[in-house]
Amino acid sequence: MIMHLVGASALILVAAHSAGYVARRLKQPYIVGQLAAGIALGPSLLGSVAPDTSKVLFPQEIGPALTGFAQFALVVFLFEVGYELDLHLLGSRARSAVIVAVASFVVPMAVGSGCALLFQEQFRDVGMPRHLSPATVVFAGVALSITAVPVLTAIVRENGLARTVPGVVAVSAAGLLDVVGWTVLAGVLMHDDGKQSLGWQWRVVLAASFVALMLVAARPLLRRLLWRTHMEPSLRLALLIGFALGSAWVTHSLGLHVIFGALLAGVVVPRERGSTLDPDLVRPLHEVSSLLLPFFFVTSGQAVAVDGLDGTGWLTLAVVTVLAIATKTGSGTVAARLGGLGRDDARTVGVLMSTRGLTELIALNAGFQAGLLSRPLYSVLVLMALATTLLTQPLLTMVRHLAERPRVTRATLPDESLTPRVPHHPQEDDGTPNVPGTNVG
Known about the structure:
The chain is an all-alpha fold. Helices cover about 70% and strands about 0% of the residues. The longest helix is centred in the C-terminal third of the chain and has 30 residues, at about 375-405.
């Protein structure tokens, strides 16, 4: 089994990073290729085309080890996300970012939850129970309202938007939306499913106490440890990753997912003096998470069964994808206009807010593990996350072309000197005198 694990790891790393390289060459985010590779190595493609080969490459016995790699990569990645989260980026565009964040969360949230309530009978066709629980209804809204900050940041950087108004507003709004989205998701996963020894009320109290302890005690302690000691970068990295893993273990013990502990640990870790990021910490965190995230994509892809979707499943995918794009781009564009941005900049913000990517996949994975999603609906939502992320770059290109299209202005009208004029004589027709400067053409 150890050799099976070594061989499977080699295949996962080579296939996922090769697919990521191809995606980048096609002007797509790197993780889009990795996610596609993870789905392809699962039952959707490899398990369907060559089931015997799939069983040899990925026997059930190595499943726990692959899941362990995936959870470790997830903790490191979200620890980095929490550490890099900077709401001071808002600056003078705070009002615009707040309006965009609120609209981009509330509108998709209302549409997703409303559809879950209105179409409960139709959801039965994708494996959901007849009566959806309140937690499932809220989770349906969360699934539409998420924006992936890391992928959005990469798209903004690659399109040269990092120092532009729409780029700053979109990244800032996505950071605010992340805070709200993860908070709501934490509340959803607190639902009492009968598997926890403590009731949800006690778990809420313990979770709030843990957050307060991290902010009040852990943050000053870490500041003293990191700023007043000359610790080697490798030792500091090891201690902080251990801190993130410990925080993730606590939140998991409280009935939450490990993602919340990892995010909280990243937020708690103080930045350098002057509120700057420590490059000796960010660089290795990024390298470790980028290297190991393919294990998360593969373990997530094992639960995606594209061949198991019937006509209803594909129709559900089409409807969900349209709703996901329309609610995000529409609400983001309108909110950006209300926030004072021009028409073209507002369209750019709306398109960027529709980026879901890895953050959506993490939330879906947490909901699936909590029993809030059936396997067919999980497959539909994973494919929706892939589709919306793939469409971000083409939509940005379309918005750019619309902005560059020549507009009909006075400067583009024909020269009036070349327009023949109709002679007009004083006191003619209605008796109006010929006043100089009036339009007589």
